[in-house]
């Protein structure tokens, strides 16, 4: 690719997908000079010794966002993954988003059991050690709160980071026991259509899972990214329902009741239902829609130089694999296909990227994902029209970032 191709401004500064492979066009590196004699402090003395458990560099300054609890109950609340500070697709355990309804219980696995009962041939009870003896599977899946991105349903756009607006989404490698192993062992009655999962936290979190889901990809997760679940993620065990709203993946799992009907619990009647424009409520719409967002450049960032940037972000869908992502730099007037940086996996985050030349022009950056079912991420207006103005679950509208002529990036509605 020649320099004229690199300099060509396409649709608000977006460049052909292979433009960044032309290293000489970047102009980011300084001229080569021989390394100077060691003068930095870290080159003049030995560093810190190894530790029992690794920590990130203090210069990385990584932390969750929106970590405050509910004003009336500090133990309830959520914290978001700082999406704008990460790359790749795996979320470190320390930065995985959290959502708690009554705090994080400290459960001793030696005193905790999982009971499977109801419409089964034989009720079963498992200790943690018992579950460790079962064959396990490992899969990479995203987990998203159904209330993720709800701040973009508000009347006025908030000037927040990508993580604060959309960070109730994380992606990890989950290891556990396929639930159908336990259901087969218990002998499920032909009339059984639902599995009622209950957690051991003070909130008594209880959700109904359709049997069709339970027999598919659902697992009893024991490990996350190779280590035992952390307390905030359900230690010693949690239900994990891939591709579905996070609340149904019940943490601190204590029982599974098999029955013919859903339980219609508090969490699936007064909450986690979708209010429709006609005043009715849609229940058990569990799968998360196709969605994407640009994580860089994104909210509260400032571009400190003119030149080439890599627009990068994440895409996912509860219907399966991401087929493609498009990027716009002019608020959706025109679109350019992005490169999928990571191999698309079903029900997992996919990273995308595309080179963009910014020379001080005012721009609106957007991304739009399409999944293997052909579902296309909707505009904000279309996503809002699907539900009542009083609803905010399952919002998957296109995220827009305005880049000013001064390089300041803010959340906007388009």
Describe this structure in words.
- The protein has 414 residues and is mostly beta strands.
- Among the domains are: 164 residues, Oxidoreductase, molybdopterin-binding domain (Sulfite Oxidase, Chain A, domain 2), CATH 3.90.420.10; 122 residues, Immunoglobulin-like (Sandwich), CATH 2.60.40.
- 8% of the residues lie in helices and 30% in strands.
- It has 6 helices and 24 strands.
- A hairpin with a 5-residue loop joins strand 14 and strand 15.
- The longest helix is centred in the middle third of the chain and has 8 residues.
- It is globular and about 75 Å long.
Helix content: under 10%
Radius of gyration computed on alpha carbons: 24 Å
Give the CATH topology of the domain at 109-272. Sulfite Oxidase, Chain A, domain 2
Main β sheet profile: 5 strands, mixed
Give the termini distance in whole angstroms. Answer: 34 Å
Side-by-side strand order of the widest sheet:
5-4-13-8-9
CATH architecture of the domain at 109-272: Alpha-Beta Complex
The poorly predicted ranges are: 1-8
**Nearest-integer average pLDDT:** 93
Number of strands: 24
Summed up, the helix count is: 6
| Assigned CATH superfamily of the domain at 109-272 | Oxidoreductase, molybdopterin-binding domain
Instruction: Please tell me what the overall shape is.
Output: globular
Strand content: 25-35%
Along the chain, the helix and strand elements come as: HEEEEEHEHEHEEHEEEEEEEEEEEEEHEE
């Amino acid at each position: 690719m020649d320099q004229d191709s690199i300099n060509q401004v396409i649709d608000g500064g977006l460049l052909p997908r292979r433009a960044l492979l032309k290293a000489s066009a970047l102009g980011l590196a300084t001229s080569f000079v021989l390394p100077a004699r060691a003068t930095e402090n870290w080159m003049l003395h030995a560093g810190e010794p190894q530790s029992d458990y690794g920590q990130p560099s203090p210069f990385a300054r990584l932390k969750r966002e929106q970590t405050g609890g509910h004003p009336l109950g500090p133990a309830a609340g959520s914290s978001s993954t700082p999406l704008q500070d990460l790359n790749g697709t795996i979320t470190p355990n320390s930065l995985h988003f959290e959502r708690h309804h009554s705090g994080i219980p400290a459960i001793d696995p030696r005193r905790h059991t999982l009971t499977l009962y109801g419409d089964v041939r034989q009720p079963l009870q498992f200790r943690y050690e018992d579950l460790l003896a079962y064959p396990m599977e490992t899969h990479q899946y995203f987990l998203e709160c159904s209330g993720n991105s709800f701040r973009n349903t508000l009347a006025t756009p908030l000037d927040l980071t990508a993580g604060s607006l959309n960070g109730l989404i994380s992606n990890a490698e989950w290891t556990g026991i396929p639930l159908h192993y336990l259901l087969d062992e218990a002998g499920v009655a032909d009339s059984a259509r639902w599995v009622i999962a209950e957690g051991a936290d003070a909130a008594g979190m209880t959700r109904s899972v359709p049997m069709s889901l339970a027999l598919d990809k659902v697992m009893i997760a024991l490990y996350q990214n190779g280590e035992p679940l952390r307390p905030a993620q359900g230690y010693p065990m949690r239900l994990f329902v891939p591709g579905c709203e996070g609340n149904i993946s019940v943490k601190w799992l204590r029982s599974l009741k098999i029955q013919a009907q859903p339980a219609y619990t508090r969490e699936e009647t007064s909450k986690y239902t979708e209010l429709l424009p006609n005043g009715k409520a849609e229940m058990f719409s569990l799968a998360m829609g196709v969605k994407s967002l640009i994580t860089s450049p994104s909210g509260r960032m400032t571009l400190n130089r003119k030149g080439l940037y890599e627009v990068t972000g994440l895409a996912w869908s509860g219907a399966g694999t991401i087929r493609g992502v498009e990027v716009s730099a002019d608020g959706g007037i025109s679109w350019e296909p992005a490169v999928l940086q990571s191999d698309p996996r079903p029900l997992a985050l996919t990273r995308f990227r595309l080179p963009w030349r910014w020379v001080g022009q005012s721009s609106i950056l957007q991304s739009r994902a399409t999944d293997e079912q052909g579902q296309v991420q909707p505009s904000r207006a279309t996503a809002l029209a699907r539900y009542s103005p009083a609803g905010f679950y399952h919002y998957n509208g296109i995220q827009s970032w305005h880049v000013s002529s001064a390089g300041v990036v803010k959340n906007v509605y388009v």
